Automatic annotation (TrEMBL):
Superkingdom classification of source: Bacteria
Positions of the Amine oxidase domain: 15-433
Organism: Nocardiopsis alba
Protein name: FAD-dependent oxidoreductase
Coiled-coil regions listed in the entry: none
PANTHER family membership: PROTOPORPHYRINOGEN OXIDASE
Gene3D superfamilies (UniProt xref): FAD/NAD(P)-binding domain (3.50.50.60), protoporphyrinogen ix oxidase, domain 3 (1.10.3110.10), Protoporphyrinogen oxidase, mitochondrial, domain 2 (3.90.660.20)
Length: 449
């Protein structure tokens, strides 16, 4: 096929699809190339034997917390059906002293306890108040307060229970971060912006709802890997075993290390920033159960932080996240490995991952092993951005660079470890690509071989 094209986007996760959507709305011709057989990236949902298996842990806070995401949801009409994006009741619990303590991350938890002593709850309220009054911007973590301290430093002066039972497990469990290596500014900004877990929502039809809705409106080619990106006089050439393609500009909507592999010509402040962008590997195990199960004492909600296990950080009760996640009378759980567990089990076969993580979860769900009827392990070498001091120091120059033929999108652009960071990056990528194309000659044509 031949025809005019302005932009090729590499990667059909939320960042790439949101970027392609915005560029298309701006009148540009766009094609999205995805190496996997389906869209979604780290927001992909598998459909297995009647189950909706979210490969990640997507939750949607309020529009104040996730403005770019909610703008896109409304633009696509996904909120027309009130039941399509339901609230998750309770949402988060903390495992302590043999049972799950609910209301974590909610103002109500400061009254009911959530496994913390009165002194710890008072200290938590003080810490959150201090962070709420700090100069924190989730889209610009290199600015303002806390740019020179780690998460471990931030929590060092907090009450031990706050550090060890709640905020430490939150950072290591949800984001996969070693606390001493992760910068405090992105964590604190995300924590403050996300607000109460009482407002968390999910997608009824799977976490890939947004990517699928975007892909339906775009020119997306799955099973189309890109192996190299090369700037040439007449555009940017994308090499692929499926056939090369040349476009006026390219957006690499892939993790920073992957972008560097694809685009060896990168240099200057771009290379400095991309080289500084580290990632935390993530490992998540989905268990198909012959009956619904939940951790003891959990009450309502679906996610339980586990602070006292070397391999296991989070248990999610997916059939409570939304009943459509599992067939009636059956259950679906996900076990999220700790940073240590992700490292130790990264190369282990699936059956070994299932055995060890299930054994760790047995004390939360006695008899769990006897109800498992299947398991799927989800491995992400580049799980979530791990913001370190080098990345924060290099980001200002990266943001200020002039528009160019090759640009980027993804959660690593703002070092914000969530889908909002990915979706919000589309605005910047679109503005930069539009400015570059406006200054360039007329769009060239696709060349496929």
């Amino acid at each position: 096929m031949t025809g005019p094209i302005d932009v090729a986007v590499v990667g059909a996760g939320p960042a790439g699809l949101a970027t392609a959507h915005a560029l298309t709305a701006a009148g540009r011709s766009v094609r999205v190339l995805e190496s996997a057989e389906a869209v979604g990236g780290r927001m992909r949902t598998l459909r297995v034997d009647g189950h909706l298996v979210d490969t990640g842990a997507e939750m949607i806070p309020s529009a104040n917390a996730y403005p770019a995401t909610w703008r896109l949801i409304r633009e696509l009409g996904l909120d027309a059906d009130p039941s399509a994006i339901p609230r998750v009741r309770g949402a988060l619990s903390v495992w302590w002293a043999g049972r799950a303590r609910r209301n974590a991350g909610r103002p109500l938890g400061l009254l009911t306890g959530m496994g913390l002593s009165p002194a710890a709850r008072l200290d938590l309220a003080r810490l959150l108040g201090r962070l709420g009054g700090a100069d924190l911007d989730p889209e610009h973590p290199e600015r303002g307060d806390l740019t020179d301290v780690s998460v471990a430093d931030l929590l060092e002066s907090a009450h031990p229970q706050v550090r060890e039972r709640l905020l430490g497990p939150l950072a290591s469990g949800f984001f996969g971060w070693p606390l001493e290596r992760a910068a405090a500014a992105p964590f604190a900004a995300h924590l403050v912006a996300s607000g109460s877990t009482a407002h968390w929502r999910t997608y009824r039809d799977g976490m890939d709802t947004l990517p699928r809705a975007l892909a339906d409106r775009l020119d997306v080619r799955t099973d189309h890997p890109v192996t190299r990106v090369v700037e040439e006089e007449d555009g940017v050439r994308l090499e692929s075993p499926r056939g090369d393609l040349t476009a006026g500009a390219v957006v690499l909507a892939v993790p920073a290390p992957v972008a560097m592999e694809l685009y060896p010509g990168i240099g200057g402040v771009e290379r400095a920033y991309l080289e500084a962008c580290e990632y935390a590997p993530m490992l998540r195990l989905s268990l198909f159960l012959d009956t619904p199960m939940a951790p003891r004492g959990r009450g309502r909600g679906f996610a339980v932080l586990v602070s006292d296990d070397p391999l296991l950080s989070v248990v999610t009760v997916d059939h409570d996240k939304h009943p459509g996640r599992a067939p009636r009378g059956r259950g679906l759980l996900s076990l999220v490995a700790s940073p240590r567990g992700a490292r130790e089990l990264a190369e282990a076969p699936d059956h070994e991952v299932a055995r060890r993580l299930t054994e760790s979860a047995e004390r939360l769900l006695p008899g769990l092993g006897g109800h498992v009827r299947g398991a799927v392990a989800h491995r992400f070498r580049h799980g979530l951005p791990l913001p370190g001091p080098k990345a924060l120091a290099a980001r200002a120059a990266f943001v200020a660079r002039p528009p160019a033929a090759v640009d980027y999108a993804g959660d690593w652009i703002s070092l914000r470890p969530c889908s909002e960071g990915a979706v919000a990056s589309a605005t910047t990528a679109t503005e930069r690509v539009t400015a570059f194309l406006a200054a360039a000659r007329e769009p060239i044509r696709i060349e496929e071989t």
